[in-house]
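Newbie here. two chains, one complex. Structure please?
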Amino acid sequence: MSAETAVAATRGIEVRRVVRKHHALVRLSHWLNVPLLFGLIVSGLSIYWASPVFEHAPDAATGSSDYLADIGIWAVRHIPGLAGPKTNPSTWIYDRFGLGAFQLALALRLHWLFAYLFMANGALYLLGLLLGGGYKALLPRASDPADAFSMARYYAGVVPAKLLRRSWPHPSFRSKYNALQRAAYFSMPVLGALAVASGWAMHKPVQFHWLERLFINYNGARVVHFGVMIVLALFVIPHVILVAADGWDTFRSMVTGWSLRTGESVDGD
Amino acid sequence: METDRPGSGREEKEEAGTPSTPAVTEGVKTAASEAAPDESAPPERESAPPGPAPAAAAAASESAPPRLTLRERLREPEESPIDVPLRKLRARTRRDFLLFSAGALGAAAGFWWLLPDRARREHLTPALRDWLDSWEARVGATRERREKFLNHSLTFDDDVAEALYSPTRSVRTYSRSQVTPLRNNYNGVIPKPDYIPSWSLTVSGLASGRSERLTIADLLSEFSRHDQVTRLCCVEGWSAVAWWGGLRFSDLLSAYPPAAGARWAKLESAVGLDAGGNPDPYYVSIDLPTARHPQTLLATHLSGRPLTVAHGAPLRLLAPMKLGLKNIKAITSIVYSTEEPADYWNERGYSKYDGL
């Protein structure tokens, strides 16, 4: 690299000082996760519709015994513009966020398709982390709890400080990620593995009986699988907001791998 | 890169440890030798001129590579900036963003293709849907191709399931106190109990070349009853622990052996009715290794009592290593075959293996 720089300098070619952020396999698997998780959630909701795991006694007014369907019934009733002539409130959440009601056979086939691709993609991600050494930036460390607290304090105060026009410096870290990012990015592959494990526990509870026992019983695996889906879906919200707040360089680095933030001028993120 | 750093850090420490000026070297040397006369290494290094000392230390660390602790190995490396020619950087960035956009477009198109018609109607405007449909027709992404593609993912999963299957692995059993309410998922309506007095089981595809007609009294007297408390899992997602009793399918197979080369059994129920109450025969394909499994029963009892019509009186399949939809109720015929027989739900887009 230094030889290249030297040649470039002598020829008077314009250069940019960049830093490598993400291995190509990590970038690839990161973006593949978007359609794969989307497909898994969309088909998964249509599978869930066939027999919800979170149920209550049937509601006399709506006839619903499904907590998830209740959200749709509530939304159609209270949010203006949602109720159309063909809207069915009791299947609204499945029609809008899933493949719809009565799609079990198709949803199962799609779920297997995306599930196998998701597992392959997970392997790709781990390979990329190993080859690029990126896993080192994700491993939890002893200073994390204290650093996480100072980051949480920073996030809590950043908007009020902006409004009051007071300076609110970003805590400075010498690592690639701050403690909150590290906790989030470390827990993602763990959650992915949990989704896969609970999925197999449901899919093959006889051949993988030990896996089913790990989740106590069949319904335990269903509850975990659903819970992991909710957490993964909720992760997307702060993830997208924070990347947008952090700027173009952060987004570009996940597409191209390089960043202009060489650590010489920028703090933290 | 990161393996060098701890070494260089140590080097710095040693450098700091060595006296900075030659003037005081002598005095320190004597003090050190008085305090610790055994130590031979520090005086040696001090005798060397101050200039090449770091080089000597570097040579020492090269000859004996520094032992890194696991903690040091896992330490995040410092980001090392590199200078890249701007033209090269721009070309690579353009390439990566083009790939990214192509991927995003491909994913969106793929999703639209895979989306069921019911879901398609929920999204986009009619004009946009027409436009996309015409593009689909132009590139040949037809509904038939979609079905074929999705069936590949199903057969792939079936192959995985078959590879995972072990005939010696038994289904988890429960105690009778763990029994949970059992749903009745009769597809359509529950048949009227009129069929029960004239019910009989026909078994064909036998080695004897004949076909056998067995009444429920024959079955109960000829075979010993086995009881088990197992979980029945439905493809819909619900499951129930139930106490079943009946004869082992394997006992029927030994008493009436199938013809040589038989690998499958087609179990059929002629009493099934559709939602309108019209005859709707139900049939499942069962591979013989599953039929021979000791926990595969031809169940006659539920919770210690003879089966009710809702649960498949007088004889149903209980294969707890298969999804509930294979556990056919009110079996009227068993046919052994070498070719895989038709399966009711497989014809409606579900797996034909359904192994748990």
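Moderator note: Chain B is about 40% helix and 15% strand. Chain B touches chain A through 59 residues (CB under 8 Å). Thread marked as resolved.
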